Amino acid sequence: MKKPGRNKPCPCGSGKKYKKCCLHAPQQLAGGTFVYTDLDDLSNQVPRLIEQGKYKEAESVCKQLMKEYPKQIDGIHRYAELFEEKGELLKAAEYYHKTATFAEQAGGFGEESVAFFKKKAIELAGDIGKE
Prior knowledge:
The protein is 59% helix and 3% strand. It is mainly α. A two-stranded antiparallel sheet has the order 1-2. The longest helix has 18 residues.
């Protein structure tokens, strides 16, 4: 079964977007076994650390993602989320733009995801002048 786009309704029926619901849930294989990859485990640390206000630790994990998984979107996207949470809107906008570019060039990302990243970059860049 193909995973839905991040901004699509979650197939679990919760009514939430997939990214806000089951995106970070472990994958279920035949036989009921749940599996996370090392990339998933590392990437999922970032939002938890951000939520706890542990920005330095979150940034360290972002660096590790970029180093260990340079051909994956996770490091760039997690940096965007971190900078946005820290209020560093210019950096956040820059990283959302990088995330959109990566998603377009890598392929396999839904149009909704690319549009979401572009929209975030534009919104955040626009918010800089309002401060």
